[in-house]
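Continuing from the previous page of notes. For each protein in this section, the sequence appears first, followed by its structure tokens. Read the first protein now.
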Amino acid sequence: MNLPNQITTARFIMAIVFLVLLDRFNIKQQDEQVWIMDIAFVLFVVAALSDILDGHLARKYNQITAFGRILDPFVDKVLVVGAYILFLGSNFRQADQSAATGLEAWMVVVIVARELLVSGLRGFSEAGGKAFGANWWGKIKMLLQSITVGWVLTSLGRLRGIEWVLTGRTIVIWLMVGFTAISVIAYLLSSRKALAEQAA
């Protein structure tokens, strides 16, 4: 349990607390519960930034472990994908049943489907002895997804009801969904050699 893995474990704990806060939030009591969005935003930012730190330390001090290679992407998915799933919950539904987060169910399906597909490709490639690390498409996708989660939290917190925040949120959401879908193609292309060899 080296330092990078300790940071990753701490991120996992923060992710669980973050998701519990999202589950406790109720849009019908938005004014009274703005503190929940404040704490959730801080936890998310710290957890997201520490993801950069643990990876940097692991590479710098040659402390990359099998435990870290498994836990780190797992925590990423719990934190980010968990947030998008909870954003569709009934506690984020307005009186007209529209999502206060600006997200649609099909958008979250795209996000989850992409993660399942890439996880499958990663397992398939590494089982065949080929490394399957995150490429720049995946890193940019993660950045956009994280920015979107932060923006949604802000739009429901201190900056709720501000027109430019809501407009920006819509733009960021569509950009994130589009890039998430495109990144699937990039991963399929990078895996085509391993897939072809297995088929042969």
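Done with the first. The second protein uses the same format. Note its length before scrolling.
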Amino acid sequence: MQTAFEDCDAVEQRAQDELIHLFRDAVKVGGAALEMRVRRFASLVRTSDAGLAQAITPLVTGDGQSVRRAHASGSSPVDSDTKLPLVRFDAPETIRQQPLLTPSVQTAVDQVVRERRAAEKLQAAGLMPARSVLMSGPPGVGKTMTAGWLAYELGLPLLTLDLASVMSSYLGKTGANVRAVLTHAQAQPCVLLLDEFDSIAKRRDDDSDVGELKRLVTVILQTIDDWSPASLLVAATNHGELLDPAVWRRFDVTLSFVMPEAAQRSALLQSRGITPLLADALAAATDGQTFSSLARAIESARKQNILEGIAVDESLAAWALSLHTSSSRRSERDRRNLQILVLHCREKSAREIADELGTSHTTVLRALRQFTGEDNAGT
């Protein structure tokens, strides 16, 4: 019986070896379309057979592969005057951090990935996978990160429209640049991110804009309608109210991002190495802060730790305290509790904290139990 199992394992291993050799030989001559298919296969088996996915991925991540050449070579669109590239290229294998999303947004993102991975099955049934996604919400809540995550999950390069290069003092040039980017992104499979989308897709009833920009909106609408299913178009805006109403109807999927809740803020802090109890305490004290502001605070705290020897926990607690101190809406109790947390991070005992703040030992212990969950937090 043992021999039979061993034989099965050996046959399976040989089959996988042959599959890898088949992919290697095919990619050499198959071009970008086959390369994308191999990427999707590796993405599909990543969870069920990480070893096989790891063996296949290098076949399509080398500097000489066709997709990288097609998007990052001289064929990439450039401004005719400045010669600056109109898109930024990120390779498919670029490591991405999974964004922290609300359940409804996460469900929608997962659905986009499933549809894109099963594109051929859907098309065979006369259905079209999601081709376009519009994300709206305040800055710093994970829109750009979500676009990168979609590209990573789908094994596609991420192309980001460079608005600084696209926008021109010659209005006709701006339209030509945008059209060049849209055409280029459909030539080879990719995820195209149009960040700050409101700057090129404003309402056409805005009297402050001239005719050329209004015509550009019409071009964009037509392009979305005819978008190639080989690529995924992702647009992001901080000001959804500025978009032309017709834009919203054109996108297959619309995602509304909101300010992160306490649970999401705590999850971000924990993902960056902050202990769960402290992360929960800081999350409760940072209402109204975005993911990006939290990430900057963590980075600043780590720099202080290296340059000044201040503990990361203490720096973060002091930062949270500064938010409360600068806001009249914060209660005096909240400020005092954060002061207690800062001093606790400095390894002061409860009695030392009480003496320094002029409060009772019992009050300090109660706050520390809230922050640390310990019954005898440094008595």
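What the second structure shows: The CA atoms of residues 222 and 250 lie 9 Å apart. The first strand starts at residue 87 and ends at 90. We return to this in next week's lecture.
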